[in-house]
């Protein structure tokens, strides 16, 4: 992981610190597209995501295993976080230099609209492949 970095929403009310991974990924699932207004481009920050006291962070529980964070003042998309708080993907757009995070992966690629595509090579995974990574092990397995 890289060093601790700071970021903020559009209005500056939600200031955060995190230790982002050096590379970013996109999610094309329907929830991320509606949440972010396009593909969600996030950087893994594990459990290092912290907000300044008083930040008006709002949480929307979007599934049994995940939630979406946004600014309660300006509505900026902030992050996706696992329900247990151990994983987070912060929007690269909240950091001063989003270009520091090369986009190397795409998840839920099978849900990507045909109207856009990323340039360059990326590791692509379908929704089924992503969910299989996080599904609880089958009993007796």
Could you describe the 3D structure shown?
The chain has 141 residues and is mainly β. It has one domain (5-134): Beta Complex (Metal Binding Protein, Guanine Nucleotide Exchange Factor, Chain A), CATH 2.170.150.70. It is built from 2 helices and 11 strands, in the order βββαββββββββα. It has helices spanning 30-36, 127-134, and strands at 5-8, 15-18, 24-27, 40-44, 50-51, 57-61, 66-71, 77-82, 88-91, 103-107, 123-125. Strand 8 and strand 9 form a beta hairpin. The longest helix is centred in the last third of the chain and has 8 residues, at 127-134. It is globular.
Essential attributes:
2 helices; mainly beta; Metal Binding Protein, Guanine Nucleotide Exchange Factor, Chain A; globular; 3-stranded antiparallel β-sheet; 8-stranded mixed β-sheet; 11 strands; about 35% strand; about 140 residues
